[in-house]
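This part of the workshop introduces the protein records we will be handling. The structure tokens are whole numbers drawn from a learned vocabulary of backbone shapes. The record below serves as our worked example for the rest of this section.

===
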Amino acid sequence: MCNGVWIKTYGCQMNDYDSGKIMSLLGRHNFHKVDSCQDESCGVVIFNTCHIRDKADQKLFSDIGRLKEIREKRLKKERPFVIVVTGCVAQALGVEITRRSANVDVVIGIQSAHKLPEAIEAVQQYQRSVKKYSPIISIGECNDEKFKCFSTVGASHLGPCAFVTVQEGCKNFCSYCVVPKTRGTEYSRPLAGIKEEVELLIKNGIKEITLGGQNVNAYEGVDENGGKFDLVDLIEEVAGYPEILRIRFLSSHPCNMSKRIIEAFGRIPSLMPALHLPVQAGSDRILRMMNRHYDRSIYLDIITKLRDICPEIALSSDFIVGFPGESDDDFAATLDLAKRVRYAKSYYFKFSPRPNTPAENMPDQIPEEVKEKRLEILQELLDSQQQEFNSETVGSVQSVLFERIGRHDGQIIGRTPYNQPVYVEAEAGIIGSERQVHITDLDKHSLGGILV
């Protein structure tokens, strides 16, 4: 049998979500997951790609190239070995992928992921018969069909926490971003499909749900009667399931951070006091060039309102350094904003031009060595803020939802409401339960504690 599937997932949690759904869907067609493409039962390799960062396609083709020898050996033995590319690079490049690599059998865009089983089975039949065939390419632009399919398949992972995509795409058209071209300009799933998926997850023991989207707080769905349904309505709907102890959402855009969403942090107990709100830069001039549609005063006002409603809220963010034209003063404004906000956690990146975006050809591209230096300075500041936030937790008692076994014997890992990883020495039976933990230790990126 050659029905083993190895999936390599690049990028964000939404890609992780898609990979889990793909694997569950393939499981209905007698495929099973394997841990390596070297596994003797592996007959399908799927690359679920991300197009956000620089050189994404180079990494993909390098990974495909490493499979050439094993693929040729399997095919000579008349054993199917199907290579699939899906995700954002598939959506962006389409047929170009098969032009650049003859080893790719299937290119499936994001909105056609539900068609994978039939595409893989078709290629397997061709390979078994040793007939010549053309690669199967399907990009697609309709989210409805995919999500109708995804609503009925469970997660392929074990654990109490799940990610549920409720919104895809973005219509903000930031000058550096390819999301509108790869994920579309915005789509919100109807409530019925989301509820169906949530109820299936509950049957599988899920206790925490993260509602996800490229611009999740722009969610504008419809309920069963065709009425409008926003993100807060959706949070309240999920909070109505007593089995769901915790709710989170990401990623948000400041322009869609409404008063209603802010106030939800003060009145919905299961909505965790943690928010990821990307700012990208602290300079108004750079924010305009990025086409972010807000300035630093608007962003800081949102932070003030959030902390008025929920003083203990943990804030995280994304930053880009070295955007074209970024001066020393612009970078200083970013450092100043970070100091004012005091983040619990942040992600930081050097600007990397993406093909066919306005920022790709902007004048005054910043030299690589300047980007490196600025990233180092920002990283030092943001990492120190994370350490400070975590150190303030030491000595306190926190509610921790335990998710998985740790790397060391007897170690179990969970998270606080503020999304901080915590490890304790305990039996694996506590996984899936929420327990009180006395925080005693601080590591670089996690906390240690003792069950109360």
Summary: The mean pLDDT is 93.
